[in-house]
Design brief:
By secondary structure, the chain is of the alpha+beta class. The chain has three domains: about 1-165, Reverse transcriptase/Diguanylate cyclase domain (Alpha-Beta Plaits), CATH 3.30.70.270; about 170-245, 5' to 3' exonuclease, C-terminal subdomain (DNA polymerase, domain 1), CATH 1.10.150; about 245-395, Dna Ligase, domain 1. The chain contains 17 helices and 13 strands. It has helices at about 10-15, 40-45, 55-65, 75-90, 115-130, 145-155, 160, 170-180, 190-200, 205-210, 210-220, 220-230, 240-245, 260-280, 325-335, 370, 375-385; strands at about 1-5, 25-30, 35-40, 70, 95-100, 105-110, 135-140, 165, 250-260, 285-295, 310-320, 345-350, 355. Strands 5-6-1-7-8 form a five-stranded mixed sheet. Strands 9, 10, 11, 12 and 13 form a five-stranded antiparallel sheet that branches. A three-stranded mixed sheet has the order 3-2-4. A hairpin with a 6-residue loop joins β2 and β3 (about 35-40). α4 packs across α5.
């Protein structure tokens, strides 16, 4: 059996942890540059605050209902995420925990008897909340796809479910699938869900009864076959498989203010490339293709986003996850894109052509130190993860970073800065 442990409204929960006066008050957290709403407490959802909606459009509703608003505080969220994941590893064993995202992790419960699954999930939930202060919901089922569905059910009505749902019998799994619309299933994107609706397949159970040959033809080949198997309770999705199927990794940011200097843009692109490289290494992958885009500040408000975006890409000689091997071509692409006198409001880096790093061969014509640069990257990643804010960075990323995003409503970094530690009076 598999369990997925999912933090409830994670960013909002992190903000509430050090502000108990917000326990019953609605809370929202904003995206980079304070642009959109990326996390909502249940109270904010009930008031009609829309996920991913622009902040300025929701501002009237927020002020009217005294909703607490915060800029994204990634130092705080990253540290509390690590504490949650370390707690899960302590409880279930390091080899039995697969971190899926900053607020989700799969836990292998194969050694737990069926009659003990609920109590085990409750013990994990209670311990995580007691040790970290972050509330979680847990879904348990034979496969990761069904566990995601169980977690969705647990979060739909938290008071009834106690934030725990266990689908450990065929009858429970069938009932859950019959109630689940296909677009809500993990692994079914917008295009495929519309395709399934057009074919008359509306819920998870109808999809699970389709043949594997049909899935191979109409649901993307091997990926579709795995989905059908998972819905039937047959383990078929592995984190490494998901990595191979993933098409790209991207890091994009709005600038705090419009930027016209090419050196500022190069610093930003180098910084975003470093972030993307960290994500590659975290997933044990490497990239063959790098793309860079910059977005012009529109003087004409009728100008489309596509019309204001300039992009270039290049194919690398060999797949890599070494930061400096990615920064160099990324900066070269900026030279091709930049136009003197133009102001830019956003930039981004996308890495594609992903392969597992196990497939990368050493170069017999280079020294041993050059072939072991992945070890250096791991060391830099470990230092930066523990200290935050890029304590170790490449010179190309700059030092002053005047282009950095706005975070006007950011709370203190309570757990990672000595001068911002929480004070008890």
């Amino acid at each position: 059996m598999k369990a997925i442990v999912d933090c409830n409204s994670f960013y909002c929960s992190c903000e509430r942890l050090f502000k108990p006066q917000l326990a019953r008050r609605p809370v929202v957290v904003l995206s980079n540059n304070d642009g959109c709403i990326v996390s909502r407490s249940d109270e904010a959802k009930d008031l009609g605050v829309q996920m991913a909606g622009p902040y300025f459009m929701a501002k009237h509703l927020i002020e009217k209902n005294d909703i607490a608003v915060f800029s994204s505080n990634y130092n705080l969220y990253g540290d509390l995420s690590m504490r949650v994941m370390d707690t899960l590893r302590e409880l279930a064993g390091r080899d039995n925990v697969e971190v899926y995202s900053v607020d989700e992790a799969f836990v292998d419960l194969s050694i737990i008897r069926d009659e003990e699954l609920y109590e085990t999930a409750k013990f994990i939930k209670d311990t995580v909340e007691m040790w970290t202060g972050i509330s979680v919901s847990i879904g348990v089922a034979p496969t990761k796809t069904l566990a995601k569905l169980a977690n969705h059910i647990a979060k739909q009505n938290k008071k009834t479910s106690g934030c725990i749902t266990v689908l450990n019998t065929p009858e429970k799994q069938r009932e859950a699938l019959q109630q689940a619309r296909v677009h809500s299933l993990w692994g079914v994107g917008g295009a495929y869900s519309q395709k399934l609706y057009n074919m008359g397949i509306t819920n998870g159970w109808e999809l699970a009864t389709m043949s594997e040959a049909w899935a191979h033809r109409f649901l993307g080949g091997v990926v579709g076959v795995r989905l059908i198997k998972e819905l039937r309770g047959e383990h078929a999705v592995d984190m490494r498989d998901e990595l191979i199927e993933k098409k790209m990794i991207a890091t994009t940011r709005m600038f705090g203010n419009p930027v016209s200097d090419i050196n500022d843009i190069k610093e930003a692109v180098a910084t975003y490339t470093s972030r993307a490289a960290e994500k590659l290494r975290r997933q044990h992958s490497a990239a063959k293709v790098i793309s860079v885009f910059i977005v012009k500040k529109e003087e004409d408000h009728n100008m489309s986003f596509q019309g204001s975006t300039l992009s270039e890409r290049t194919t690398l000689p060999a797949a890599t996850s070494i930061t400096q091997e990615l920064i160099k071509p990324a900066i070269a692409l900026v030279d091709k894109l930049y136009r003197r006198g133009q102001e830019y409001k956003k930039a981004g880096v996308m890495l594609s052509g992903l392969v597992t790093d196990e497939s990368i061969q050493g170069n017999m014509f280079l020294s041993e130190t050059k072939n072991c640069e992945r070890r250096l990257m791991d060391t830099i990643d470990n230092v930066n993860f523990s200290q935050r804010d890029d304590v170790l960075k490449f010179a190309a990323s700059g030092t002053t970073r005047d282009w950095k995003m706005r975070q006007e409503l950011r709370s203190p970094r309570y757990t990672t800065r000595w001068d911002e530690l929480y004070e008890v009076k």
